[in-house]
Amino acid sequence: MSSRRWWDRAERLGGVLPARRLTATDGEWQQCAADVAAARGCLLALWSVDDVSGAGSRVRAAFAIEPGVLIVELAVDRGGAAYPGLESVYPCASRMQRAVFDLGGLRSTDPDRRPWLRHAAWPAGLHPLRDTRVRAAEGEPVHSGDVDRDSSGAANGARADDYAFVRVQGDGVHEIPVGPVHAGIIEPGHFRFSVVGEKVLRLEERLGYVHKGIERRFGELGLVDGHRLAARVSGDSAVAYSWAYCQALEGLAGCVIPPRAAWLRGLALEVERIANHLGDLGALGNDAGFAFGLAQFSRLKEHWLRTVSAAFGQRYLLDAVVPGGMGVDVAPETARALAAHSSQLAQEVHELRRIYEEHDGVRDRFAAAGCVAPELAARLGLIGLAGRASGHAFDVRVDWPCAPYDQLLPSVALRTQGDVAARVAVRFDELAESCRLVARIAGGLPGGAFRLEVVAPAAPSFGVGVVEGWRGPVLVALDAGPGGRVLRCHPHDPSWQNWPGLEHAIIGNIVPDFPLINKSFNLSYSGHDL
To answer: Which residues contact 207 (CB under 8 A, 6 or more apart)?
Structure first.
């Protein structure tokens, strides 16, 4: 069956996003994933949810196919056999499935059963999204001597904090453990390098150190309040997350936001994209030994954030997007200032790009480093900026445009080399396009209201939002429970798909190039670990 036929079978969801939902059998679950992959569709997210009645559970997968977002649901018997894993079709699904078990207790057939998020932070038999409290028998503090247990409660012989990294054997092979505490202010993550000399044979990541119970916390909030938590899932993508949450809420509430609100959201999203690309381009220059680049892009980012603060009242727009529209309007004079600044910024960035491309040392460090070929990127399911640098042109703003992008017609930044130079080029292209979009939006804001009241649905319902953040598509799946409460909210960062790609990008490179390759992806820890 083609991916289009699965789409035609599915039930349409409300909202501006083209999205449908389909209930599948065990056999259809894997076949649907295979058909989507064959059509070069990608896996957007995989998570679990308990029924409102508490009688059963479901696993959901969100796929990006040409018509839109296809949500496929599989009913799972918690006490029965494991559900079919999708890791053979989408390798990035493995970590998502392991997280589903850690949080919700639903086990897939994936042979990799190592804990992903738990880190011995709670007893092995406890699943935070299913169990409302720690049972008295398991309420003692977890320590390094705790024995990990499988789903049947039998001890498997491994200590919970003794992670079974894959070992590489051979003459001259040794390991370099890096992290999880780093010599800087970045978030924690463990990187285990297997090397011969300085050449990297294998990298294995262990993340999850920033797990903070966000999905559990969502279940304690009202539907109209959840946008504030969504904005704080990953602070550098606050607009993308809060917009995706509000898009999901507005879809299930049947709310259509005013045109001015939609344009202001687009303005905020491009403002956020510009700030992050400015920061990364400076950091990439610094990692290549070109401190001049860091100084110049840091200057440009600071000036940009000051203009943003004058327009929106915040340097980072954590509370700009709210249900029904925007929490703040932009005055005509500050809109003009944004437009003027973006045009000036585009000129300065154009000159800095010329310097980067003509500098022999920078060009030598960027070219052919951390390469992910288009074929491998498709197999791994790379998405967003990293995917577009490896030939995968998907961009929500272009492929599923909602207002204002259906009128702005943004272009897609695309490269096929898949190396650091390609990811840098995509950033430069997207930065120039975002400057154009900001000038266009700020100069053409429609009049009228910038916010409507959203009435939360009283009956259980489901909605989904997808917004193209600066890293890639941010998805928020929202289940409304009785009384206007959040039953389940799953925010999904594109870093889930792209962290495994980093493991492949470093193979064959030397250890000193890892900071540069890592920065060229610049993936989220907080948005990934939740």
So the answer is: 116, 189, 190, 499, 525, 528, 529
97/103 Cα distance (integer angstroms)? 10
Give percent helix, percent strand, percent coil of the chain, each to the nearest 5: 45, 20, 40
CATH no. of 3-117: 3.30.460.80
Compute φ and ψ for 415, nearest 5 degrees: -135, 160
The conformation of residue 166, written as its DSSP 8-state character, comes to: P
Question: What's residue 160's pLDDT?
Answer: 52
pLDDT digits (tens, 9 = 90+) for 380-412: 999 999 999 999 999 999 999 999 999 999 999
Q: The tokens of 14 are what?
A: 């409300």
The CA–CA distances, whole Å, from 300 to 314, 386, 423, 516 equal 17, 24, 20, 21
So what's the pLDDT on residue 185? 79
Secondary structure of 254-289 in HEC code, one letter for each residue: CCCCCHHHHHHHHHHHHHHHHHHHHHHHHHHHHHCC
Q: How deeply is 464 buried, as exposed, middle or buried, from its count of CB atoms within 10 A (0-12, 13-18, 19+)? A: buried
Q: Which H/E stretch holds residue 204?
A: strand 199-206
Half-sphere exposure of 88 (CA within 13 A, CB side): 12
Domain ranges in the chain are: 3-117
pLDDT < 70: residue spans in the chain: 1, 52-55, 132-161
Helix residue ranges, H only, 359-383: 360-366, 374-380
Name the pTM for this structure: 0.94
Q: Quick one: residue 54, left, alpha or beta (phi over 0 = left, psi -120 to 50 = alpha)?
A: left
Rounded (10°) CA dihedral 479, 70, 521, 190? 60
User: How much is the pLDDT for 46?
Assistant: 98
Long-range CB contacts for residues 54-57, cutoff 8 Å, separation at least 24: 57/104, 57/106
Contacts of 88 (CB under 8 A, 6+ apart): none
